[in-house]
Amino acid sequence: SELHLSRAMATSTPVMRPPDLSNPGVAALVRELYPFTKVEEKSVKQFPSYDDRNFYFQGTLSDSFVPGCSERVEENKMGLEEFVLKINSTAFIPCKILDSLNNIMNHLKGKEVRCPYPLKSKNGKLLEICSESQLLRSEGSCESSGKEREFGVRVLIFLPGELLDKIDRVHVTPKLMFETGQYFGKLDAALQDFHHPATLNRELYWDLKHFLTLRSLLSSVKDSKNRSMAESVFQKFEEHVLPKFTSLRQGIIHGDANGENIIVVKENGCYKISGIIDFGDCVQTCYVFELAIMLAYAMVENENPLQLSCPMLSGYLQTFPMSEEELDCLYYCVLARLCQSAVVGEHKFKQEPWNTYLLTTPAKAWQVMGVIFATPRNEIEKLWARARQMQSESVH
């Protein structure tokens, strides 16, 4: 399982990512599997990622092709449509999980939350399984690595806009943070009636329910001060959150509410939330973890971490209210997510020193943890308590 893989990370070879593909290789694979009449090779670009491969491309679907829903894909100014090719190792994310993620995105069609959705292949499938040699053939290679690995291949509709964490910080206003919180609250509410056995039984190491299993990775943290903070977070989580697991509400959450997964568009000089991407960490777990993950990433990505967490908290609770018991765990869950991101990031970079993307979060996460540790807990919780009373009209 994915959890078993995480427990083994410290002592075994990490799961290999899918092979990298060139622009012609991406175009050839897409044309082979999906009903495109044209794929623009020079439009292909790879997005940074942890364990999978994600390629943006532009192309034209066959006129006879109908996507997985009634709507057509919007064309850009060039008359081409925009898509993302996603390739996952099935050893890392099993096919049944990938199928559940497709179902989640399709479930959200027509809801108040905008997200990508998968297209059907020439075979009428939302998920194609390819061997490594098949991927390499798209590169014009006949090589095989011996024991064949398998990969899940999907094409998703691309959501146009900008990533929240890429816009100028001057535009990251309390109003935008409030709306972001609202949006994720709507997402969690929209998934309350979604059921899939694979998601229900998924064991994911990013799920904070399994946070304590990451203690074994502490040796990867070189800085003694950071390691001491992490040890304290593990202890606090074990004392204050673990005993409440059985009584906390659970459901399907997005699980990765960071600025690289939030699409914004500019209207009348101001940015607004346009959609959410990357459902790869969706799992059935405690709802308070969604809020904690969102607040943790907001703190990492902004200069005034505690202040900007307040409107986001207020927005989320407006669309997805929480009990006092859930909110009592929030402080420790925020620390746990920051710690989790930092420890896993440093450990993975130790295994893959060429992948500098893995260090994107850890340095900032340690810094924010330092700010939280330097601020009395009761002051932070008073700040959040005031935020819970905020109304949308009071956010400027």
Describe this protein's structure.
The chain has 396 residues and is α+β, with helices and mostly antiparallel strands. Helices cover 39% and strands 16% of the residues. The strands form three sheets. The protein has a five-stranded antiparallel sheet. Strands 6-8-9 form a three-stranded antiparallel sheet. Helix 8 crosses helix 12. The longest helix has 22 residues. The C terminus is likely disordered.
Unreliable stretches covering 5 or more consecutive residues: 4-14, 68-72, 391-396
Strand content: 15-25%
Rg, rounded, reads: 21 Å
Q: For the terminal residues, how far apart are their CA atoms?
A: 45 Å
- The helix count comes to 13
Number of strands: 10
| Mean pLDDT across residues | 88
Along the chain, the helix and strand elements come as: HHEEEHEHEEHHHEEEEHHHHHH
Shape: globular
Strand order of the largest sheet: 1-2-3-5-4
Specify the structural class. alpha+beta
Largest sheet: 5 strands, antiparallel
Q: Helicity level, as a percent range?
A: 25-40%
Q: SSE layout and pairings?
A:
Blueprint: H1 2-8, H2 23-33, E1 36-47, E2 53-61, E3 81-89, H3 95-107, E4 128-131, H4 132-137, E5 150-157, E6 162-163, H5 174-190, H6 197-200, H7 224-240, E7 250-253, E8 262-267, E9 270-276, E10 283-286, H8 287-300, H9 305-319, H10 324-328, H11 330-351, H12 362-374, H13 377-388
Antiparallel strand pairs: 1-2, 2-3, 3-5, 4-5, 6-8, 7-10, 8-9
